[in-house]
Amino acid sequence: MSIKKQLNPYNDHIKKEQDALVLQYLPAVRALAYRLRERLPSSIDVNDLISIGTEEMIKLSKRYDKQQNDSFWGFGRQRVHGSMLDYLRSLDVMSRANRRLIKDVNKEVEKYLSLYEEEPSSEYLSELLEESIEKIDDARNGSKIISIMPINEQITILSEEDTSEIVEKDELIGLIKNILCNFKEREQLIIQLYYFEELSLKEISAILEISESRISQIHKKLLTKIQEELGLADG
Fold this sequence. Notes:
- The chain folds into 2 domains: 9-90, RNA polymerase sigma factor, region 2, helix turn helix motif (Rna Polymerase Sigma Factor, Chain: A, Orthogonal Bundle); 95-229, Butyryl-CoA Dehydrogenase, subunit A, domain 3, CATH 1.20.140.
- The chain is mostly helical and 235 residues long.
- The chain contains 11 helices and no strands.
- Helix 1 (9-37) packs antiparallel against helix 2 and helix 4 crosses helix 6.
- The protein starts with 8 loop residues before the first helix and ends in a 6-residue tail after the last helix.
């Protein structure tokens, strides 16, 4: 005689609560993925970001204690966002070989921007740097992905040195604030909107009526200044 395994009513209730949480906040995960996608190259599929974020939210629903955190999304948003960034870090665009080309491309783009107030074509960069157009495009896409990472991580990636061994996080924040003091008020606002309000270049461009290329140039200017202060800039 077979005995059917009885489900534990309490465990069944907990599972239903966890599933309900995931379903309730799935639109928030999708919105977060689409917001992030606006700042990324077209080669990144938003469905991959949604999938990664949903997987993380399922894990979080099993650890969530509503007695300690009254908002599940408040508890999980940063972790979901972090899982999407981890996925982007795993892509091959930031390999050591690519970092050098990304730095070279950024340098030439900045030079071109200062002269012509627009970004050069990939064909122009390909001829100048003697690299294939495909590699140039990969480097430009890699640069876009790197640009959404925390600033200290961007510096580490582009300098190929661990900034945490050179300067503590609090010191780096102070350094960035000091550098920004020398930026024009409008430039400071652009950095604020990009990093803290997490607006895309297109959105900032519409708000401030400034070209996306110019915004990109200001972002690169900040990174260059930080590298110079840390002694990581190329000689």
